[in-house]
Automatic annotation (TrEMBL):
Keyword Signal: yes
Keywords, in A-Z order: Signal
Keyword Signal: yes
Signal peptide segment: 1-19
Protein name from the UniProt record: Outer membrane protein beta-barrel domain-containing protein
Alphabetized InterPro entries for the sequence: Beta-barrel_OMP_2, OMP/PagP_B-barrel
Organism: Chitinophaga niabensis
Pfam families named in the record: OMP_b-brl_2
Domain Outer membrane protein beta-barrel span(s) in chain numbering: 19-162
């Protein structure tokens, strides 16, 4: 009898029970950027660059997720390279558990800036070319979850604050198209 009871207990323990879904995951992300400044879309000075960082994926329920991120993003144009540390907070809606859309605000802090020198006339109203230290933007995107760990996304970030510190300077806004991959642990 003891052997039957022991065998029954071992059998019950070996049957996989439905696991509770994790509430949050840590992950890494990275991908390609295609960037430009809003006043120069047709100028062919777009910059192809990259972004790389980390994220926390919070499961709110079966359909909704909250995803705060931090990543380095190389932005700007060919003549003006602005590199940022970006902090978005995205709300994701998943449908059919594979496809998702996402949107949310983001704050970016300027890490470094490199502008190619150009000739400036003293009466040029744009000569005060100081770059703002912070950039605020709205992010919109969509993606597909391939496996439990891997998903791909496309995202557009529209700057809502001008990148220039002077009121006389051009009203340039960062615009970034991103294509990337997330890996959740």
């Amino acid at each position: 009898m003891k052997k039957v009871l022991l065998f029954s207990c071992m059998l019950c323990l070996s049957i996989p029970a439905p696991a509770q879904k994790k509430v949050f995951n840590f992950g890494i992300k990275g991908g390609l950027n295609h960037t430009w400044l809003s006043d120069n879309y047709a100028s062919n000075t777009h910059r192809n660059s990259f972004h790389l960082g980390a994220l926390i994926h919070l499961r709110l329920n079966d359909s909704w997720r909250l995803q705060p991120e931090v990543y380095f993003s190389a932005q700007g144009e060919q003549e003006e390279n602005n590199n940022y540390l970006v902090f978005p907070v995205l709300l994701q809606y998943r449908f059919k558990q594979r496809f998702f859309v996402e949107a949310g605000p983001q704050l970016a802090a300027l890490v470094n800036r490199h502008a190619k020198p150009f000739e400036i006339k003293s009466e040029d109203p744009y000569r005060d070319n100081n770059t703002n230290v912070f950039d605020v933007a709205l992010a919109f995107g969509a993606g597909y979850k391939f496996t439990r760990h891997v998903s791909a996304y496309v995202r557009f970030n529209q700057g809502v604050t001008t990148i220039r510190a002077s009121s006389l300077a051009k009203k340039d806004f960062n615009e970034v198209l991103q294509l990337g991959v997330n890996y959740l642990f």
